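Researcher: Structure prediction, please.
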Amino acid sequence: MILAGVGASLPLKSLLASVATPVARPFHKFQLGELELITVTDGFIHMDKVQPNFAPGVAAKQVNELLQKSFRPTDHVDLGMNMLLVKKQDQIILIDTGTGNAFGKNSGWLLNSLADAGIQATDISTIIISHGHPDHIGGVLKEDGSLNFPNAEYYISRIEHDFWMADQQDFSKSAFEDKALLKVFTKATQQVLTTIKPKLHLFEDGLVLHDCIKLEIAPGHTPGHAITHIYSGGNSIVHVADLIHSDVLLFPHPEWGFNGDTDLQLAAATRKKVLARLTTSATPIFAYHLPWPGIGHARKKDNGFEWVAETYAFPA
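Model: Predicted structure follows.
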């Protein structure tokens, strides 16, 4: 990632420190048929360990060798948060809302990033919530509990809504170790879903919105986790949300998984199934947590897949 105004000769730690307080946040615009799509950033989430966040139960030697081969650190990982907007005439559709104030200064940049791209929160007409984790739903509310996007209608799958709003959530098939933190996440998600209830629409698999979006439930990361198919004029791209969290670990080894997956085995099976389909069709992918701007393709390699990032000759 190249940051405007940051000298290329600075050491890596200085570059990373600069990211925490950006003067201007990047945005990327591109066309999809008659649609204008805009990518903005909500910042990033720093994880001070690769394992057990990734590849729980896999031999550390195998994981570290793959990271080193890919020129990635073995002692931490940073998850990008790429936000996608779809503009169709007077409709501005936002997919997920970032962290809000839940994860500190390195994230929660969405409102400022939108402003940098010339969009105000009041312009957003539709918000699709891929799933109920706090880094996707946290930006719905201000600190005082009011709505950041007061003019939007909200969509979440019925399965996802019912899971989080139940008296008890089943995390028995997850590798996530901090059960107390899961309770904190659940309470925060319930607060958001309760607040937006008058404007909330619960969808089933296959719902079509605005004649340019189709929602598909892709379970495992959470029970009602959804991916978003965006299409216009014979062109398409798929927002895969949290189907995949690492380009260098989970494409070659989709079975390794991520400890945030509510059902580790189901998430792996869904990951393989969806990636196989997108590989066969050569459909472009937008990925929430992959390196900026999260656009590329999957292709088959050996027994797994590989990520081929879209490249750009100049910032746009």
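Model: The domain at 29-309 is CATH 3.60.15.10 (Metallo-beta-lactamase; Chain A).
Researcher: Thanks, that helps.
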